[in-house]
């Protein structure tokens, strides 16, 4: 009988090869053994750091990004520029010698802002800098001329609902955090339309301004009139707020030529280093290739996309081949809510048990401090041990809760996730604005980001077992 049991057990082994067995509560090996396994990657981690930060690959991700951003420019969903960017990257990844380079088609929104113009007519003539918000409707061809009502919150708007009818609502909400304040951009037009406003102008969601409007996506709701909406600079919002507080009547002329077209075909761009032992298992690194139609999209998210490419390049340059497949995905349609990533998830979710970790860098590539991680306590302990190998560049912290529009679909279903944590103090100075250019990027900081991204993704891809779930 014992031999029958042994045969039965041996037949099970291939099914679980390379997988975490902890999902049924059994930790795959004593943590001390895992710690020793990770410690064995010290020399590999050092080689990655040396190549990325001090060696021949130094500044490579920055230089690649500069050529790309200067050549292509901004890359709005549905635009010819985004099509050109995808073709550019497809060719570049092939020339880099990566494997299985291919494009996966998806449908993405196609909205264009057209010509737009705003002018204060009373109490004086003043040109207002605006950027229409994504999916906004146009004004009538002759534009809209209306009195302004300035509010600092949705609560104030609702309290003054009778005053808002037939007016342009200007929101002068304070910047608290992006997560809290962005709802004014997302829902400002809807809430203004509910009280009968004819348009809405939203103070840019920015922590600092030099008279620069910051755009972004906004959402209409079924059954609510669709009114034109745009962002304005912090300075103009505050000026109109001061005027309103003094009782000054404000009249604004607004003209917007925005138009929404049928959805366009776009592509998620994919490249790999195929795993040597468990090629069906995936460690995914990513950033999004699309951007807004202002600036160059260098920070959001050129930097994240290019350090993700750099991770595969560094592994290849060192002659490494991890046990699992290291997969790069450059998402499309992120700025409209992760449109491309959601379709990727729907296409690949049947293989979710083979996704070891999903990683996305989409909050800048400034000076990194560590990694934000979503996963169970055992997986977090493993990631902490891996991050300790980055002590030579003093980037070892593991923070709670990974963030990434494109990887949230997977994390919600239990796949561990990670995002780069870096210095965000200036990120929202440039976010979604004309200021998002290569001038924002720093090659030395990108080198450090690439080193972190590569060490973490390679070691997880090469460890004998998947991260526990």
Low-confidence stretches: 1-16, 21-25
**Strands, total number:** 16
Output the radius of gyration: 25 Å
Strand arrangement, major sheet: 1-10-12-11-13-16-14-15
Structural class determined from secondary elements: alpha/beta
Please describe what this structure looks like.
- With 469 residues, this protein is of the alpha/beta class.
- It contains 15 helices and 16 strands.
- It has an eight-stranded mixed beta sheet with strand order 1-10-12-11-13-16-14-15.
- Helix 3 runs antiparallel to helix 15, helix 4 packs across helix 10 and helix 10 packs across helix 15.
- The longest helix is centred in the middle third of the chain and has 20 residues.
- The chain is elongated, with a radius of gyration of 25 Å.
- The N terminus is likely disordered.
Give a brief description.
This protein has helices at residues 2-16, 31-39, 42-54, 60-72, 80-95, 154-159, 161-164, 178-194, 234-245, 298-317, 339-348, 377-388, 408-412, 427-430, 443-462, and strands at 99-112, 116-122, 126-127, 130-132, 144-151, 168-171, 199-203, 229-232, 251-256, 259-273, 278-288, 324-331, 355-360, 368-374, 397-400, 417-422.
Keywords:
single chain; 469 residues; alpha/beta; eight-stranded mixed β-sheet; 15 helices; 16 strands; 23% strand; elongated; disordered N terminus
Strand and helix layout:
Blueprint: H1 2-16, H2 31-39, H3 42-54, H4 60-72, H5 80-95, E1 99-112, E2 116-122, E3 126-127, E4 130-132, E5 144-151, H6 154-159, H7 161-164, E6 168-171, H8 178-194, E7 199-203, E8 229-232, H9 234-245, E9 251-256, E10 259-273, E11 278-288, H10 298-317, E12 324-331, H11 339-348, E13 355-360, E14 368-374, H12 377-388, E15 397-400, H13 408-412, E16 417-422, H14 427-430, H15 443-462
Helix pairs in contact: 3-15, 4-10, 4-15, 10-15
